[in-house]
Amino acid sequence: MKKTWYLTAVLFCAALFCFGLWFWILPDRAVSAEENRPLQGFPELRFSSLLSGDFSGELSTYYADQFPLRDAFVGAKAVLELSLGKGENNGILLGESGQLARRLFRLPGFISPTDAYDRDDLSKKTGILKEFCQKAELPVTVLLPPRAIDVASSAFSYPDQTSRAVISQLREELSEVGYRDLCEKLQSAYESGEAVWYKTDHHWTSLGAYYAYTEVMRSFGMEEEILPVDSFERRVVSTSFFGTLASASGMKFLSPDKVEIFLSGREEEYEVTADGKELSGLYAFDALAKKDHYAIFLDGTHDIVTIRKKNGESRPLLLVAKDSFANSMAPFLALHFDLILVNLSSTRREFTDLSALLDEYRPERLLLVYSVENLLTSDRILTLR
Amino acid sequence: MVFSSLLFLFGFLPLTLAAYYLLPRRARNPVLFFASLLFYAYGEPVYLFLMLLSITTAFCFGLRIEKYLLVNPKKAKRTAIASILVTLSFLFFFKYYNFFAGMISALPGITLSPIAGLMLPIGISFYTFQILSYTVDLWRGECAVQRNYLLFGTYVTLFPQLIAGPIVRYREIDRQLTERKETVEGFAAGAIRFCAGLAKKMLLGDLLASGYEYYQTLLALHPTVDAAWLAAILFSLHLYFDFSGYTDMALGLGKMFGFDFPENFHYPYCATSITDFWRRWHISLSSWFKEYVYIPLGGNKKGKLTTLRNLLIVWLLTGFWHGAGWNFILWGLYYGVLLILEKLFLSRLLEKLPRLFRHLYTILLTLFGFLLFSSSGFIEAGNWFSALFGIGTVGLSSTLSSYQFLHMLPLLAIACLGATPLPRRVTTRLFAAHPKLSFLAPAVCLIALFLSSAYLVDSSYSPFAYFNF
Asked: What is the pTM of this model?
């Protein structure tokens, strides 16, 4: 017994001291690629920050951010959560064949994440959308990309109560104003084994985006011009993509996604500018060297992107007010239109003033691509004019 | 600072232990005092001075009380009362001023503007009660005066129990301040207790809390009867594991430094009556109120009516001690009334009923109590309470709430078992029957430490939402 006491005391102290020491010896990391955020460095010691308590707050963050074996600890926590039978970690469900989907969302006005949704809040937002569409003096198509949990529901033992309620509410409240329901089509494609959604990311794949494109063309009455899926050369550009859901899940044992692009052979004909600077084209291949491979489409996040023909040929202008889901649709739409894509989630607020943008660019059509997730979790759409 | 933080576990604690055991013996109390001040100042740099002021006044008053005690008892009493009032005034001002200001302003003709930014100093309710126990016991002649400021300061600020108890009375610990003996056995037992407490808080308490928060949100968006019950059950379990886990850590830390603090919890959810519950929940608080309010008021020695009055006063104060809000006052009175009923006739009635029924009775009533305790307002508590019985709900259950329930079942089962003496009984018997297995204790202890650390590290893990653009 005596031995056990000694052993306990020694091991306990050793654990505290070793990790304490290791922490201080370990060089600080500046950023976490997995989290896509800067990590806290050793806080600056000032009298005012000491007194206000800011210093101690930052020191705590510093400890957590720079702790040895951080990734291993995060992974261990995920494994423990799963082994408790929760089937998820950090609100991300783990489904069949490694499919991930976010279950818990943070709704505006609620502190803790939830998988229920606020019917009235959604109604308010669809009301704004509807009013905008009815006022607009040009044809508008509203495309609301569903969430991974809506499309890949067959991969989970999770009830689709919220999915069905949200989708049917959207259909009900927006049917008069050019709303196109995508969910059913993507769902059945997913169920029949087509890779329309990434397993580790919340976006659709290029195939999913292709389906969205056909839906948009149909809503434009341009069914005949849709290019068949086999007219594209499908090229795999990455087999090592771990998307946002993988990051958020903290799970370290997942297999990566592959990223495919659909080439039409006309890629060289476009002139693409983003926020005033010219891009090399529709695809930013250098994104593949970084964490977020989805950023290969239109170089990731930009406020405003224009796509025109290099030879000056002028085609009908389509304004796309969008979030990131439209980025992988752009290569398809560019086959038929000159495009201006504005980021509705931009930190620059003027992009929700669509009336002003319409006056400025005078497009022939307007396409709204705004994901159901953003619609539910952000109040941005309330500022739409 | 809190125990359940990486900074404490892998920075503050090892450094304090090293300083404590490596420096000469006479430096031990100064090390503890200094470390405790640092511990407190880390979260509350400004309020450190308030705490020191409170300690200093009580210390000085104490010297005077002792001076008059034998020669002029009346003056001693006056000094003691002055000391108590000064000590209480700090608590009153920082904890209750805004509450009363709001209440008085509601009266016509008077406005007492609340002070914006008046924050509750951490642990003030705990250390104030510790200081009061010294002043009262000194005046009653039940303990000797402390002439050493450092020792008195160490008693009040001792970081293991500074911010969440247990409330240690001065006379329980005055000899330990100078005569305690640190042993390897004590240290190891302390380490095991600490790790157990850490795991209780991090692996059960916090997970139960997130389950509770889930159901709270669900209640707001899609209220069902089962969600209301589960929210109440999860909250009760969360509070127990959080608070008793924190107490375990405090007791464990105390042992590492050679102290023996009084126990604070004794399987409260196994109680068979409300009276029994309060002998098992936050024991140091109820015994403080018994010792310093109930008995001085006459206890149960002055007839039935006085006893009932005393009970109501004590429980009004107990409720109010938990927070400056009507819900806490009502929560206290709720228990006051229940205890009175039990004293009058309910206890005798209960004793005739089967044990299972008595358990259910106690659990249900504490569950209802916690609705008041955890709600921010009466309307919220009222809605929650009615939802338990299907009023204002959209159904008995929903697919969402039953999905969540099923996936929390293992955690809930572990928590329910963990709230009974069973795990301890089994391990004690196992180790007694197979002494060789005792080597498992340090292993389990380390696993608990690492798993808890994993949750602590993970709590800062927040993938930035670049995707929402």
From this structure: 0.92
